[in-house]
Design brief:
- It is a single chain.
- This protein is an alpha/beta fold.
- The chain has helices at about 20-30, 55-60, 85-95, 155-165, and strands at about 10, 35-40, 65-70, 75-80, 100-105, 115, 135-140, 150.
- The strands form two sheets. A six-stranded parallel β-sheet has the order 2-5-1-6-7-8, covered by helices on one side.
- Helix 1 packs across helix 4.
- The two termini are about 15 Å apart.
């Protein structure tokens, strides 16, 4: 849980191992179960989502602290922050109305973690091996661990694990 109220799970692993693809495949099955899902992806580098010439870009360039775009079905916020916000700060400010928050990255946070591990990409083992918050591994081959291990194609198994471990056991 983040902020004591939002159930959150972090998917971690090396670059290009399929974290985004796995999350993308989990979301429809979790929403079919009636869950409202939110996703936060951590990015190690700066990024630009606004485009030169667009109104929101022009507002920010002119000195606005933030620029927001609102339409009948969406809202987008572009805000520069002087320091990187913690996951807890992000959740407190922006996350609401979800039953499960899926986080990609934030491997240093004290969140339950499911690691996506490809043996060809990580000869030294999972990046979070030994992390007390690592709760399962999704992999392409068998792995010597006491944790639950799921095949990359066992999406329903991962969903059952998430539901059993985090959703069905949470306090009402």
């Amino acid at each position: 849980m983040v902020n004591g109220s939002v159930v959150a799970i972090s998917f971690v692993g090396r670059s290009k191992v399929g974290k985004t693809t796995l999350i993308e495949r989990l979301i429809p099955l979790l929403t079919e179960k009636g869950l409202r899902i939110g996703v936060i992806k951590h990015h190690h580098n700066d990024f630009e989502i606004d485009k030169p010439g667009k109104d929101t870009y022009r507002y920010k360039r002119a000195g606005a602290k933030f620029a927001m775009l609102a339409s009948p079905g969406k809202v987008a916020l572009v805000e520069d922050t002087p320091v990187e916000l913690t996951l807890e700060e992000i959740v407190a400010r922006f996350v609401h109305g979800v039953d499960l928050l899926i986080v990609e990255g934030f491997k240093k946070e004290a969140l339950p973690k499911i690691e996506v591990f490809l043996t060809k990409e990580g000869a030294d083992g999972p990046v979070c091996a030994g992390d007390k918050n690592l709760v399962a591994v999704v992999t392409d081959e068998s792995l010597a661990t006491t944790l639950p291990v799921f095949s990359r194609d066992d999406i329903e198994g991962v969903v059952r694990f998430i539901l059993t471990r985090f959703i069905e056991t949470r306090p009402s």
